[in-house]
Design goal:
With 284 residues, this protein is an alpha/beta fold. The chain folds into two domains: 103 residues, Rossmann fold; 157 residues, CheC-like (Chemotaxis protein chec, 3-Layer(aba) Sandwich). It contains seven helices and 16 strands. Strands 8, 10, 11, 12, 13, 15 and 16 form a seven-stranded antiparallel beta sheet that branches. Strands 2-1-3-6-7 form a five-stranded parallel beta sheet, sandwiched between helices. Strands 4-5 form a two-stranded antiparallel sheet. A hairpin with a 3-residue loop joins β10 and β11. α2 packs parallel to α3. The protein is elongated and about 75 Å long. InterPro entries: Bact_response_regulator, CheX-like_dom, Sig_transdc_resp-reg_receiver. This is Response regulator. Keywords: Phosphoprotein. It comes from Clostridium thailandense.
């Protein structure tokens, strides 16, 4: 298994020595150290570390400025601030500039190692989630449509972008909380909503309100089942769903989101369903 490559940024020889010992004793590869902004930029470009431990005070620049420069070179490099100062304002600024963690000096070896491992476990877990979640959400939608309406849907090709869409008339949004935040959105026409509701309850819905309640519960089941599938694959996700938010009308728009999402059109004999699901990292 590839070792995590670490660059230590600190102008104290003593601190560099302490951090190097802790990291190497715990099977991390220390690829170098730097004591100024120019050294940081050179070492990052030359050594290509996975992680940088960042002191807050150095000659000519502070740790936040160095962090910003590292992120310009490679946004995938993780930065942990290692500083004697630790207050809410500094932590917020560090997070805003792209730091993934914060450890206070004097450094506790267990705290440092746990912080590093948690950061990389989260990244691996997020990559795993991105590779699997849409298949499981589509499986859940297919299974529940089949149970309720005896309908087998077909899906268009997955689209990996998020643009503003004009609603077909009924939109249901289900939030997902847990290790990562996410959301599932289903958008369909009033006619499709009525068709699904009619088969689900084996009679005509009394009114639009009953139809929306049925679609809301259906969406909640689809998202809940999909999250259960994901939790069984890896209990670290800890996903659970929030109550659905339901919108309907003739002039609705589905807003563009900064969240990474995947869209498919679910085609059934009852009508089409615009199906959009996405998750984001914990620090976004």
């Amino acid at each position: 298994m590839k070792k995590t490559r670490v660059l230590i940024v600190d102008d104290s020889i003593f601190s560099v020595s302490v951090l190097r010992d802790i990291l190497e004793e715990n099977d991390f590869e220390v690829v170098g150290d730097a004591a100024s902004l120019e050294e940081v930029k050179k070492e990052v470009m030359d050594k290509k570390p996975d992680l940088v431990t960042m002191d807050m005070t150095m000659p000519g620049a502070d740790g936040l400025e160095c962090t910003r420069e590292i992120k310009k070179i490679d946004s995938n490099i993780k930065v942990i601030i290692v500083s004697s100062m630790m207050d809410d304002e500094i932590v917020k600024k560090a997070e805003r500039d792209g730091a993934s963690g914060y450890v206070q000096k004097p450094v506790d070896s267990e705290e440092l190692v746990t912080t590093v491992r948690r950061i990389f476990a989260s990244e691996d877990l997020y990559i795993e989630l991105k590779q699997t979640y849409m298949d499981l959400f589509k499986e859940s939608l297919s299974n529940n449509l089949n149970r309720l309406t005896k309908t087998i849907p077909n899906y268009t090709e997955e689209i990996y972008k998020s643009e503003t869409e004009h609603s077909r008339g009924v939109s249901i949004v289900v939030g997902v909380i847990g290790k990562f935040a996410g959301r599932m959105l289903m958008d369909l026409s009033k006619e499709t909503a009525e068709n699904i509701s009619r088969l689900a309850i084996k009679r005509d819905p009394k009114n639009m309100e009953e139809c929306l309640q049925i679609l809301g519960e259906f969406s909640n089941i689809v998202a809940g089942n999909a999250c259960s599938y994901l939790n069984r694959k890896n209990k670290l996700y800890g996903f659970r769903v929030s109550p659905p938010a339901i919108f309907h009308g003739n002039s609705l728009n589905i807003s563009k989101t900064s969240m990474e999402t995947i869209t498919v059109i679910c085609k059934t004999q009852l009508g089409e369903i615009f199906f959009n699901v996405g998750f984001q990292r914990s620090d976004e």
